[in-house]
Task: inverse folding
């Protein structure tokens, strides 16, 4: 944790689909983080930094090019004090590229808080978030309770990419407040006693 810049928050854009809305939502989240003063956001877009899709056999070295691809993602996740995952909902779950980048990492998630901003149709992406909670619990990440969700998101943003529902600002503040509390609490705990899985 950089005492001058505050908490480092990785904002992960979980969708790689053509025409995706994720970058718009992620830009809004990053702006909310920047306005706080106690956090700094770094957006990790899985289109710009794709993770490898073929895992090596257990005990075997990774395929050529794997290390180079992960070098664009892994250090950024490791340096983060907290994460915010921006995800749509695909077939009652979250996108495969997001699961892929989660599965490539382990220590990078341990004892770090994760917040969620989801978007979708009637469900607002909440089913994707519920499944992510189970996956991240296996990696010893701490998911915060409050989320930001955009139901029928196509009607919820203006031409400048800003939510039209004023409640979104309050929801983001509550989620980020929880994220900051857990990030500082976990950082203090790890400074006294390193985390052991």
Result:
């Amino acid at each position: 944790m950089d005492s001058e810049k505050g908490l480092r928050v990785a904002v992960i854009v979980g969708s790689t689909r053509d025409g995706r809305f994720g970058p718009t939502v992620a830009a809004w989240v990053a702006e909310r983080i920047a306005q706080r003063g106690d956090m700094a956001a770094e957006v990790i877009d899985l289109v710009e930094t794709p993770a490898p899709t073929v895992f090596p056999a257990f005990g075997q070295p990774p395929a050529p090019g794997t290390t180079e691809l992960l070098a664009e993602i892994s250090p950024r996740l490791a340096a983060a004090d907290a994460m915010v995952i921006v995800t749509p909902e695909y077939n009652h779950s979250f996108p495969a590229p997001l699961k892929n980048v989660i599965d490539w990492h382990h220590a990078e998630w341990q004892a770090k808080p994760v917040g969620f901003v989801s978007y979708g149709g009637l469900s607002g992406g909440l089913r994707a978030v519920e499944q992510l909670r189970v996956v991240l619990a296996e990696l010893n990440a701490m998911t915060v309770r409050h989320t930001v969700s955009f139901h029928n998101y196509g009607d919820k943003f203006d031409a400048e990419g800003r939510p039209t529902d004023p409640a979104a600002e309050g929801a983001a503040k509550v989620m980020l407040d929880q994220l900051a509390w857990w990030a500082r609490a976990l950082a203090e705990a790890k400074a006294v006693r390193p985390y052991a899985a």
